[in-house]
């Protein structure tokens, strides 16, 4: 064994304790350090840095070592260098005022589960070593219940919403082949001929998925939305389906990115009485509305979808990367992703996970989700969802009352979409974001042609006090920009 490996193994308890101290320090400072550090963030104050082995070069500091070290320094030295060189540059994305994108944090139970995921290091894809995939099936069943889906939906863990949408649309592609008497999995996507994928306000990952699947971005046909909304107009969708040359795919939205608008899922599903289409619902974070009795009506009809995308590293607050794909047709899913090798289990009526996603290998992502669901249950996660919704509404009220800002949409769930009341150019909004970044992080967008900002609430730590801090930071930044 290499001497550094042997030494680290002998000192493993001590080194893991040092890792724990570093992790605890990072988590305990989430509330006080800059939400997004500036590019010139200095090294950790008070830390003694080793003298350089040779004179420091002139010019900009390099990012990381110029070359791979020939001789390793062991875990202890790696921990010190990471704390000095990299940790200060990382954002507080696990913290309560990182409101960019739609980013959850990591609950204490999910953190423990993720650490144990690495400890046990399971490649949970085969019945030849089944415990990991059995745990994944149990966790997927818990999630199915959490979102109000029926037993006809089978769930599989994937890396994120993009892969969930891709997997769901891959199953839809095979369904189209079944309708046309061909198998794209065997004969290629070209065997389908022209394909139409209809959607009102699709997430960008849908076009990406169509590119990956060989259907092409041009297959995506935008359907008009309701006036002033991002929700699809059911009558317009009805007309578009009537014009489709054959069976089609509809991508419905349960929570759009900009305004968390929901398609009328029941009305969309009812169109199957007149038209032949696969219904895929992108509920990446909107599915969590089902946890709140006051908002569950938004997800009515989710169970009628043929496939459903839900992203877990958003509102479930488990670590990146984690999502799930539910589908009624796991037989078609297995037809797409079947993997034949002597060392793998047979396909069978209950396919091993290796036959259900693009990955032959994946870490036991389900364990972090299992831990947080077991630790806090439906009631605990409902509390997170409802608190985040209340925080989003509170920020919306703060900004609406300030003449420097203008809301561009009602706060329907957990996203506040707003802009500057005066001259909302991308440059001025970027300046505002930068000026406020010590206290709050929001992301840019465009809504109906207007440059805007989004504040998305999905972190388990966020409280009304964080809303007040975020609002004050945005107000101060707005006053300071030209």
From TrEMBL:
InterPro entries cross-referenced by the UniProt entry: Aromatic_deC (IPR010977), PyrdxlP-dep_de-COase (IPR002129), PyrdxlP-dep_Trfase (IPR015424), PyrdxlP-dep_Trfase_major (IPR015421), PyrdxlP-dep_Trfase_small (IPR015422)
Cofactor: pyridoxal 5'-phosphate
Biased composition regions of type Pro residues, renumbered to the chain: 52-63
Keywords: Aminotransferase, Decarboxylase, Lyase, Pyridoxal phosphate, Transferase
Disordered: region residues: 28-69
MF terms in GO: transaminase activity
PANTHER family named in the record: GROUP II PYRIDOXAL-5-PHOSPHATE DECARBOXYLASE, MIP05841P
Similarity field: Belongs to the group II decarboxylase family.
Protein name, per record: Aspartate aminotransferase family protein
């Amino acid at each position: 064994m290499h001497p550094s490996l042997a030494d680290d193994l002998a000192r493993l308890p001590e080194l893991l304790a040092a890792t724990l101290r570093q992790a605890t320090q990072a988590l305990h400072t989430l509330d006080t350090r800059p939400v997004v550090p500036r590019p010139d963030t200095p090294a950790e104050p008070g830390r003694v840095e080793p003298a350089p082995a040779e004179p420091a070069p002139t010019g900009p500091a390099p990012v990381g070592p110029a070359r791979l070290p020939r001789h390793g320094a062991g875990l202890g030295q790696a921990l010190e260098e990471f704390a000095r060189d990299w940790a200060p540059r990382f954002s507080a994305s696990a913290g309560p005022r990182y409101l960019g994108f739609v980013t959850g944090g990591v609950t204490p139970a999910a953190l423990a589960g993720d650490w144990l995921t690495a400890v046990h290091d399971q490649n949970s894809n085969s019945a030849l070593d089944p415990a990991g995939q059995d745990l994944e099936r149990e966790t997927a069943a818990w999630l199915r219940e959490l979102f109000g889906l029926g037993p006809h939906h089978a769930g599989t863990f994937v890396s994120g919403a993009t892969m969930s949408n891709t997997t769901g649309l891959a199953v839809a592609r095979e369904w189209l082949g079944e309708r046309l008497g061909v198998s794209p999995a065997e004969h290629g996507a070209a065997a389908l001929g022209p394909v139409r994928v209809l959607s009102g306000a699709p997430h960008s990952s849908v076009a990406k998925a169509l590119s990956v699947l060989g259907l092409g971005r041009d297959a995506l046909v935008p359907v008009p939305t309701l006036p002033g909304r991002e929700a699809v107009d059911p009558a317009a969708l009805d007309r578009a389906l009537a014009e489709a040359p054959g069976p089609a795919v509809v991508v419905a939205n349960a929570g759009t990115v900009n305004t968390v608008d929901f398609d009328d899922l029941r009305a969309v599903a009812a169109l199957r009485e007149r038209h032949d289409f696969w219904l895929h619902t992108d509920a990446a974070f909107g599915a969590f509305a089902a946890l709140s009795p006051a908002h569950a009506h938004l997800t009515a009809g989710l169970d009628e979808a043929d496939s459903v995308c839900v992203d877990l590293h958003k509102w479930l607050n488990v670590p990146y990367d984690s999502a799930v794909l539910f589908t009624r047709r796991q037989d078609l899913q297995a037809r797409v992703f079947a993997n034949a090798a002597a060392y793998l289990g047979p396909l069978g009526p209950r396919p091993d996970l290796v036959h259900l996603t693009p990955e032959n290998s994946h870490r036991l992502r389900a364990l972090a989700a299992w831990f947080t669901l077991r630790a806090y249950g439906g009631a605990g996660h409902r509390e997170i969802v409802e608190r985040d919704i209340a925080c989003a509404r509170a920020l919306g009220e703060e900004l609406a009352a300030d003449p420097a800002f203008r809301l561009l949409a009602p706060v329907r769930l957990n996203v506040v979409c707003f802009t500057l009341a005066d001259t909302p150019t991308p440059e001025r909004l970027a300046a505002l974001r930068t000026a406020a970044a010590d206290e709050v992080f929001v992301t840019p967008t465009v809504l109906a042609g207007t440059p805007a900002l989004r504040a998305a609430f999905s972190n388990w730590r966020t409280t009304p006090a964080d809303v007040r801090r975020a609002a004050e930071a945005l107000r101060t930044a707005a006053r300071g920009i030209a």
